[in-house]
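Notebook, bench 3.
Goal today: get a predicted structure for Exodeoxyribonuclease 7 small subunit from Marichromatium gracile so we can plan the truncation constructs. The sequence was checked against the plasmid map this morning, with no discrepancies at the termini. Length recorded as 80 residues. Pasting the sequence as submitted so the record is complete.
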Amino acid sequence: MTKAPEHSPPTFEQALAELESIVDALEQDEMTLEQSLDAFERGIGLTRTCQQALETAEQRVRILTDARPDAEPEAFDTHD
């Protein structure tokens, strides 16, 4: 008996893109109730995936900044 291939979770970027697509589809108001509920359920799962990725990234940043306690925070410039 063969195992079904395991699906790896989407990356943060993939999950966010799919979540945006789901929101757009829900806003079109062209889905049935069942389709809307399925899309909403998928969206909740993707939201959790994104949240976990952000929490992991935040932990990594904390580890890196804790490694240099004498480092001064710098302003983050979003404009290049």
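The first helix runs from residue 12 to 28. The helical segments are 12-28, 33-66.
Flagging this for group meeting.
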